[in-house]
Structure prediction request, 273 residues.
Amino acid sequence: MLKFKFQINKYYLLCHALAWGRKERSLPFKEWVNLQDRLYKKSEEAYILITGGPQWITPGEEIFAKSNNLKDLEKTCKSAQNLLKEAECSKEFKRLLRETQKYLKYIEEQWKNKRIKALGLLSEITGLKIPEKEIKVSITHPKLYNGINFPEEKIIGWGHPEEWKNYSVVYLCHELLHILTYKKFKSSELMHALIELATDNELRIRLNKKGKYFEVPTHKSLLKLEKYILPLWKKSLKEGKEKNIFELEKKLLKNKKIQGLLKYDIQIQFKVK
Prediction:
């Protein structure tokens, strides 16, 4: 059976918390901002290299707007290393790490209790055989709304408030599906919509034995597409004419209305055989 290996990568944890713990609503704890302020004042360029900086400026722009010397990038990288070393020894990071370690135990136990049921339902819903492989799950602080996948490395980044029953189980399955469908889909946008229908909705309802579609937030950019697909999706679940989620995707891509709803996959040639 597929195995999740839950772990804490301290530098990933630190960088994620520095980058995302900016707003008061998403701080891991109110004192975290003290560490952010100290590091930023020490080296603005290095801090932005670590965190990505504001949306309107890239780390490279920040460095080279003030310099025309390529060696200054090397200096900034060294400064960034020093900032991370300093942050690693701080009382704020030690607290962040303790709280994340506690959260890891909670997530690990929740997954242990639900994994057989969840993976069985996931296979039933998608028609996919769940492979026997190990997926690493890098846990971050639960207040910082993290859910991401690195499919080539078979790694999931996860840390999120438990907003409803089995929340983490459902969304770990969501990220898992991204890894299992990586490079096999025809349309990343359509496949993402199908993944949300399969996990955020159908799996949630079956696991919790209650609920309805779209009663939890979804990607706004996919909502119109998902609502159009929904009757076709439910028909496929009921009749089982499509062997798996890839066959359903292929069938849906022949639909002219769906082609028009795809906003980003403009590179796709809609000549699905």
The radius of gyration is 21 Å.
